[in-house]
Design goal:
By secondary structure, the chain is mostly helical. It has 2 domains: 2-91; 114-290, Orthogonal Bundle (Hypothetical protein af1432). It has 11 helices and no strands. Helix 9 packs across helix 10. The N and C termini lie far apart (72 Å).
Length: 298
Amino acid sequence: MRSGGRSSRQVLRRNRLLGEDREIVRLVSFCVLGIAVVAAAMAIEGWHVTSLLLGALIAMIATILVLRVARTVRSLATQSDLLRQSAAEAEEHYINVLRRILRFVEARDKYTRGHSDRVAALCEQIARKMGLEEDRCALMRQAGRLHDIGMLAIPEKILSARTRMGAENFRVVQKHSEIGYQVLRPLDSLSRALPAVRYHHERMNGTGYPAGLAGEEIPLEARILAVADAYDAMTRDRPHRPAMTPMDALRELQRCSPAGYDAECVEALAEIVHLPKLAEAFAARSDAARRSPLAVPP
């Protein structure tokens, strides 16, 4: 995390140096022009050999200086590009490490196994259904993969409890979205995904956490993630309750909209999961009918 943030700051520092060096080139160029004018005036005034030699020497020194500074600027530009590439590669590696850690932690518990990957896929599908740009859809997948990274700081005894969570433990769990935001904040490549990670537990009526945002105050990415996260949680077994059917989970999300969830996001999810689930249900009924003895002609 620190190395990624440090690399980003180095890139910014290099960019500032490049700007300053370009300014130096411009200033020196003006100086050369001025020296050339003065030398020409001296030569025209007296045509003295000493004046000509002095003007030529000054012009030569200034020209060499300009060429040296220009070469330095080109070298710094190349180094800056390499540094930006290195910073991006370091961030990508860091993100992949975080994802592996999260998968490992989720895999230890049958109730959460695969949760982040499923939420990531749903986030991207909802974003596409809502007509978001391609880069925002890809960003939603990243946000979905990492939205629960803050859970790594929550004691396992709280997360693995087989009873409904009490108020005190719930306050501890509420910290995970802010922790996740702080963990990912140094990564420039995820800067646009941070609001989704931080605010995906906000609710449209302002009763969510961590900031109590309401309505349009909640970033759209966070509203999409909230719906995908809730749907996946509802349709999976949990220690204190069995899984809902996809239809029941959708009905619950619709019942809680628009007070809790963004109705447009819920509608996009319904369009994604409704028809496939209906087709599966119809196929299952047809298969059962074919297997039933009542369906066999006498």
